[in-house]
Structures are given as structure tokens and as C-alpha cells.
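sry for the spam today, last one i promise. C-alpha cells for design, 203 residues
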């Protein structure tokens, strides 16, 4: 079902688990798609695995998972070495990590025959577009972060008529490290991981 959506916001949240672990994320309500919650790290505490999950009252559940030693030194899943599932379906992902432009570095995804592109606008904003086809003009969902600390918000708005899966994929990436979608961000992320690995080795 394709629907035009009213812009909505997701507020940041965090909580400490009984064993001392912290969970973070975003939550809010879409007038058309109901309650939405993004959680990371989600699921069980498994070595070398970092997971973000999004659930909602109407949208399909999605799970983004990063595996590898680097998962131990990051605060949220990274686009590198990751898998993505929406419902029971696997989302195919690819990108050109050497491209010089934001558009060239976009993450391309295919889900149930629909082709998506996740593109960075800047450090605090990105777009998720669903490619048009012979039966559908496609859509573009824009997500922008504002505020600081506990007052942080993500504003979600769209042009065109969206599917529930469009909303799921768009909000999911509020809980994923998107830095590699820009050249400068990729460099910063690389230095940060090197420093974190060094810190862990000294502990």
C-alpha cells in the first residue's frame, strides 16, 4: 500500500540493562504508520556482533547486523561487513567505497524487486530513494538530525507515496554508522577504529 506521509520526528532515548549494558535508539509516532522504535545494540550480547533493529506497529521489522572484530569497538553497526534483513527477506547491498562523490559512495540496496539508494547529504542528514519503474514513480525519504544530547531529534519527511518498507529502511539508518558514505567521514571512521583498537589492546 503506497501512502503519502506527514512529516514526523523520532526522539533519542537510552536505557541501562540489568547487567550494566546500555541500549540506545530513536522512537516516535508516524500519523500513518504508528509507533516506531529503533534500538542498538539489539538482541543478545554476542562477541564480534553489533545489531540495530527497527520495529513498528505497522511497518515491517528490520535487522542490520555487523560481524567482525571491529564490532567490538564501535557504538553502532557499520555499513562495512554487514547484512540486512527486512522481515524474512534478505536485502542485497553494494557500494563503491572509492568513489569521490556522495552520490558515487551511496549504498545501493535491492529488496523484493525494488531498488533503493541511501545517500549522505551531510553528517546529520541523508536520503533514501526508491527507484521509479513502469508502474511506480518512486519516492525519496529525507532524514535530518537536529538538537544535542537528550534533546536530539530525527525529522522524517518524504516526497511521493511510500511503502511501509520504505519507512523501515529510512529510519533503520538512524541507528547505523553512515560515515563511510562520505570520503571525509570514512577517513574519520578509519582513524577512530584504529584508536579504539589500540585502546582495547592497552586495557
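last one done:
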Amino acid at each position: 500500500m503506497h501512502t503519502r506521509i506527514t512529516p514526523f520526528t523520532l526522539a533519542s532515548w537510552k536505557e541501562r540493562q540489568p547487567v550494566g549494558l546500555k541500549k540506545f535508539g530513536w522512537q516516535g509516532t508516524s500519523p500513518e504508520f504508528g509507533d516506531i522504535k529503533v534500538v542498538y545494540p539489539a538482541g543478545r550480547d554476542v562477541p564480534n556482533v553489533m545489531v540495530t533493529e527497527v520495529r513498528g506497529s505497522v511497518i515491517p521489522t528490520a535487522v542490520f547486523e555487523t560481524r567482525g572484530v571491529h564490532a567490538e569497538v564501535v557504538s553502532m553497526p557499520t555499513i562495512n561487513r554487514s547484512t540486512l534483513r527486512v522481515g524474512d527477506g534478505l536485502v542485497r547491498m553494494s557500494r563503491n567505497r572509492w568513489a569521490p562523490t556522495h552520490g558515487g559512495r551511496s549504498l545501493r540496496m535491492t529488496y523484493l524487486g525494488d531498488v533503493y539508494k541511501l545517500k549522505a547529504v551531510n553528517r546529520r542528514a541523508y536520503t533514501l530513494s526508491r527507484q521509479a519503474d513502469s508502474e511506480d514513480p518512486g519516492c525519496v525519504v529525507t532524514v535530518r538530525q537536529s538538537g544535542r544530547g537528550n534533546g536530539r531529534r530525527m525529522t522524517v519527511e518524504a516526497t511521493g507515496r511510500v511503502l511501509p518498507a520504505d519507512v523501515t529502511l529510512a529510519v533503520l539508518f538512524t541507528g547505523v554508522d553512515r560515515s563511510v558514505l562520505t570520503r571525509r567521514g570514512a577517513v574519520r571512521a578509519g582513524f577512530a577504529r584504529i584508536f579504539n583498537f589500540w585502546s582495547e589492546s592497552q586495557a
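The first strand starts at residue 8 and ends at 16. ok im logging off now
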